Amino acid sequence: MTELVQFTEKPSLPEDWVYDDSVKRAQNLVYKAATMTTEMLLVLWVAHEVLSERRPGKIDVTNVTSNTWESYCDDIGISKMTAWRWFKNAGLIDAHVSHNSGENEWYTPTVYTEVARAVMGSINLDPASSEKANTLVEAETFYTIDDDGLDKKWHGNVWMNPPYSKELIPLFIKKVVNEYLYGEVAQACVIVNNATETAWGKEVLSNCSAVCFITGRVKYIDKELQPAKAPLQGQMLIYFGENIKGFKEQCAEIGEVFIHG
Predict the structure, then answer these.
(1) Among 46, 80, 209, 256, which has the minimal tally of Cβ within 10 Å of its Cβ?
(2) CA proximity to 127, closest of 184, 54, 210, 49
């Protein structure tokens, strides 16, 4: 049975909170665990306090009682997306989360973005990116975590390597599916883990035009723009659009293509 989290008074800020091992453990568990520990709550509160030095409107965690992320967010009146952004802005996590590694931020090798560009003709928008990532993608418009791409209007031809956190990837998948089905997005290419057993995996495969199951595992690019070790799981490149023939041709060298329907 999980003990409820409760602070009777505001905790003091630890001077070494960035490097503290307990903080590192907590940041790795933030969106992998359904339950919340006192340790996690402390890290989240610290992240908010750091942000509050630049932004007005501090919260009061006194007597907050919760044992899940949902109940905590309800207690203090924020969304889980906002809580995640606090962690990102305070330097506790990065934009793309890998469940298979201690590293969190991964960029896409250009071989895959160039496949997408050749199929779609252009990349008008990358809604889950960063300034450094866009040096590789070269999208006309890109949204960072601070822009919150989920709240923006998407348009044109979209490339997306979504945040891999347990909480965020379903939201970005639902967004790209809806934007395409409603006609806001003309085409989209999405690279994700081949997690066909997940609800978001089923959703994207049920609504896409075609999928390429990539041969081997994608060696993503790390924050220093160097090739990283291959992840433990394989990947798939999803296509939404009418150029299915072009997608199949462009993917001939990278994997096996299956056409939906």
Answers:
(1) 256
(2) 184
Reported as a single tens digit per residue, the pLDDT across 224-244 is 666 665 566 789 999 999 999
Q: Note the helical H segments in the chain.
A: 21-29, 38-52, 69-76, 80-89, 110-120, 131-137, 169-181, 199-207, 244-250
Q: Does domain 110-259 have CATH number 2.60.40?
A: no
Higher pLDDT, 68 or 131: 131
pLDDT in tens, 159-193: 999 887 777 888 899 999 999 999 999 999 999 99
**Cα dihedral sign, 58-62-63-65:** positive
Backbone torsion region of residue 46, taken as left when φ is above 0, otherwise alpha when ψ lies between -120 and 50, otherwise beta = alpha
Q: What's residue 33's pLDDT?
A: 46
pLDDT of residue 31: 44
Counting every residue written for the chain, the total comes to: 261
CA distances from 79 to 55, 95, 97, 169, 235 (A): 18, 17, 19, 15, 29
Q: Would the pLDDT of 59 be above 60?
A: no
| Residues near 198 by beta carbon (within 8 Å), at least 6 away in sequence | 170
Three-state SS string over 56-98 comes to CCCCCCCCCEECEHHHHHHHHCCCHHHHHHHHHHCCCCCCCCC
Domain with CATH 3.40.50 in the chain: 110-259
